[in-house]
Design goal:
- It contains five helices and no strands.
- By secondary structure, the protein is mainly α.
- It has one domain.
- The chain is elongated and about 70 Å long.
Length: about 80
């Protein structure tokens, strides 16, 4: 039984020390799936307060910027941002 506990401890240590930036998208997705603890939605999983889960989700979001254009409806602000 001690061998199983040792292996579980090693897996937990490796998971706690994961370098999210070095993971591929597939690895990050698999890692994130191990942290959600069976929550039915991402929002519910985020509200659980697991900091590793939140960090993994944020890393995934930050890797892929939004494809939606940002609409600036304030002409003064648009003029400030358009300076060369």
């Amino acid at each position: 039984m001690g061998n199983l506990e040792k292996r579980v401890s090693q897996i937990e240590d490796a998971r706690a020390n994961s370098d999210l930036k070095k993971m591929s998208d597939e690895e990050l997705s698999a890692y994130t799936a191990t942290l959600d603890w069976g929550a039915p939605t991402v929002i519910e999983a985020l509200s659980s307060g697991n900091p590793r889960f939140v960090a993994a989700i944020l890393e995934g979001v930050l890797r892929h910027g939004s494809s939606l254009p940002i609409v600036v409806d304030d002409p003064e602000r648009k003029a400030k941002n358009a300076t060369p």
